Amino acid sequence: xxxxxxxxxxxxxxxxxxxxxxxxxxxxxxxxxxxxxxxxxxxxxxxxxxxxxxxxxxxxxxxxxxxxxxxxxxxxxxxxxxxxxxxxxxxxxxxxxxxxxxxxxxxxxxxxxxxxxxxxxxxxxxxxxxxxxxxxxxxxxxxxxxxxxxxxxxxxxxxxxxxxxxxxxxxxxxxxxxxxxxxxxxxxxxxxxxxxxxxxxxxxxxxxxxxxxxxxxxxxxxxxxxxxxxxxxxxxxxxxxxxxxxxxxxxxxxxxxxxxxxxxxxxxxxxxxxxxxxxxxxxxxxxxxxxxxxxxxxxxxxxxxxxxxxxxxxxxxxxxxxxxxxxxxxxxxxxxxxxxxxxxxxxxxxxxxxxxxxxxxxxxxxxxxxxxxxxxxxxxxxxxxxxxxxxxxxxxxxxxxxxxxxxxxxxxxxxxxxxxx
Length: 421
What we know:
Elements (H helix, E strand, L loop, with lengths): L1 H42 L14 E8 L5 H8 L9 E8 L3 H8 L4 E5 L6 H11 L6 E4 L5 E2 L3 H12 L3 E8 L5 H23 L11 E4 H8 L8 H11 L4 E11 L5 H33 L2 H9 L5 H22 L7 H18 L7 H6 L3 H11 L23 H6 L4
Parallel strand pairs: 1-2, 1-4, 2-3, 6-8
Antiparallel strand pairs: 4-7, 5-8, 6-7
Helix pairs in contact: 1-6, 1-12, 8-9, 8-10, 9-10, 9-14, 11-12
């Protein structure tokens, strides 16, 4: 009887260790992936291009779903570009805006496209704008309804597009507001993404990742591409994967700034992350095997890399998990002399590597008292991220809107001159 119980315990321990081993391999892949690109982004530099006086014509699309609080300021600021006025048009795509907002937009020198859908999505709005406008543009530039471009934003994108000839390009999206602890953490998260998935990728020769706004595309190519984009959440991921599948390179202009409102509270944060994680799972199922096939048969490493990213554990969950496992392994080793498989040094080592990739990716300007104070909210953020995993059902079948505040108004020219960069 004792022998049988002993064997059952051994079997359970073997199964438990095997499970921990698989988990360790999975999180280690996620950690090493982030560290390689974080390290490259810290040591390397992205390419720069000379100023171009060969101007291309841009259509600046601003999809606006119930964004009455911010759209008027966004449209007004978008018109202030240093780029020649005859070479760009601001196109506001108005979905469910108030009649008063519509009238004020009509009085502005912008093109207004009014749309209405049973189920609103950015992809639908963008496609309606393409159907409305004549094909007189070279590039389409996508903004969020709260975005404010630095005065030289289009100029810098244009120069890179002219000299490289690429069909897709991403600007550097930075925080418009740092007014709450959540906003600071969200701003830092954005910059880590910029460092790893944009700068680090370009340094190593991979395509930049897209981020949903502050991005520009060849007008006719993107119009054709969007005809098959029916995404409810993550339309930018759908676009990015198809662009990379077509073996086209996505550029990144690190010094072209567009200001984006960061989430201010836990409820908005939770809904936003729910949408992002749901989209990641959706595109993992849709494109991972296809990405592997294109890697093996066509050597398309960019497409596989993007599909592979959907396999990785979301960054905040990864940081929380490896930190917890490192703490547990040290505690169990010290208190019970028990080694949590594959061993305390492995768990501590992978946690240190993950923390190193985070520190490498955070811009120097964020190493201050405000960030340290905001970091006290990290446990709450991690708990919210974890709880989000249980509320993913149906998240990718309906549009989850992130509201923005009309109280956050900036002058992009003043921000650039004051060194917010």
